[in-house]
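tool_call: predict_structure(chain=1)
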Amino acid sequence: MRRPTRRVSRSAAGNATVIIFLLIFGMIMILPLYYMVVSALKPTSELFYFPPKFYVIKPTLRNFLSLIKLQAQSDVPFERYLFNSVFVTVISTVGYVLLASMAAYALSKHKFPLKNTITKSVVFAILFRPEVTSVPLYILMVKAHIIDNYWALILPAMSGSFGVFLLQQFLDNVPNEMIEAARIDGASEFVIYRKLIMPMLKPAWMTVVIFTFISIWNTTAAQFIYSEDMKMLPAMLSSLSTAGVTRTGVAAAVGVLMMFPSVVIFLLSQNSIVETMAHSGLKG
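tool_result:
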């Protein structure tokens, strides 16, 4: 006779402990963002209080106004920096998602020579930090004659391996029978990719979009771009805020402005990240 299994349920005290832990962890994570916003609203006299205060006594927008005045003195208009950032970020993000999803589909659902070797290479490439590859990448850029060019910003962003790995893991949960049924019905590989694979991969590729956008939006690419009219917004803002302690408040205002788009995109797409990390794709 089979003994009935006992269901394990978490006690109220256990639930309270988990909630308290998550609240503390969340406060620790949000504290730097909060302090950056507070610092951007502080006058210069309050920025150097010790111990530092996590509130503003006399809030002011002077730091943001100083940032506007400093940028107005530049020979290159603000709109040019903004265009460079938006153009490079959008093109790189869209291009990388398309390339990464196609590569993940091939590695997950097709058989070809050296497939296992390529898959292992994709995983191995994740271990390399940008600091390690910066010199070889610069040499490649010089030999390709694309230094101080939009391609010097776009191509490196489209060569990452993390997105391929993430999308492949998600695709491994998609049943092969669904793809085979589509092929029997006469669908081409491109149709399968566009109408079947991409809708199923939406939580995963939305996650890739968020990480790619944040990475590119915050990059200065100072090692590849030297012309002022080719620089991106972070490079311009960073140069304005690096002039000693007198611009500490301006630096905080710069941080808030650069942080805002990334936070908005994350909040709008956080459900996709949670779904991807939970591996909620179809089970094969």
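agent: The chain has 13 helices and no strands. Proceeding to next step.
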